[in-house]
Design brief:
alpha+beta, 60s Ribosomal Protein L30, Chain: A, 5-stranded mixed β-sheet, two-stranded antiparallel ribbon, 5 helices, 7 strands, 33% strand, binds magnesium ion
Length: 161
């Protein structure tokens, strides 16, 4: 029987004006973006945590501490690729990803497929193995007030060795 493991990841970043918003390695906006040590790619951070979670290998903060200057302003695509290298070294391969972004503005739908393609390419997955949804918070809470962005992700790993 195949050995599958599911993992869940969650991340939140504070948003401020005149910053670049990058999601899944794709530039979305230069008007509003995250306060972050890295590029603040909340989507990739949630995905990395889902992958680490599926392998029971801790979390992104443990593997890539924000106190480490090597990760200052780094593209989170590099973090995703390093995450995959680490779980592969433990005998796992990534099967699929499903994620949801919660954000009031800008709209994600026009960028959705470009983001999926970026993640699929970086993770060496077929496009149909990378799903992305987006929703607003209906004006409620810090996301609704435009002060933050949230991402949730699940990832499925398969034991290969
Ligand atoms: Mg983060």
């Amino acid at each position: 029987m195949s050995d599958f493991r599911i993992g869940y990841g969650y991340d939140v970043h504070k948003l401020i004006e005149d910053k670049t918003l990058v999601l899944g390695g794709v530039k979305i906006s230069e008007e509003i973006g995250p306060v972050a040590h890295s590029d603040g790619d909340v989507l990739l951070h949630a995905i990395c945590d889902a992958i680490f979670g599926a392998a029971a290998m801790g979390d992104i903060g443990e593997h890539f501490p924000n106190t480490d200057d090597r990760y200052m302003d780094i593209s989170s695509i590099v973090l995703l690729q390093e995450t995959l290298r680490l779980v592969q070294a433990h005998g796992f391969s990534l099967v699929n990803i499903d994620a949801t972004i919660v954000l009031e503005r800008p709209k994600i739908l026009p960028h959705r497929d470009e983001i999926r393609e970026s993640i699929a390419k970086s993770a060496l997955l077929p496009l149909e193995h990378v799903s992305l949804k987006a929703t607003t918070s209906e004006g409620l809470g810090f996301v609704g007030e435009g002060r933050g962005i949230v991402a949730h992700a699940v990832a499925l790993l398969q034991r290969t060795t």
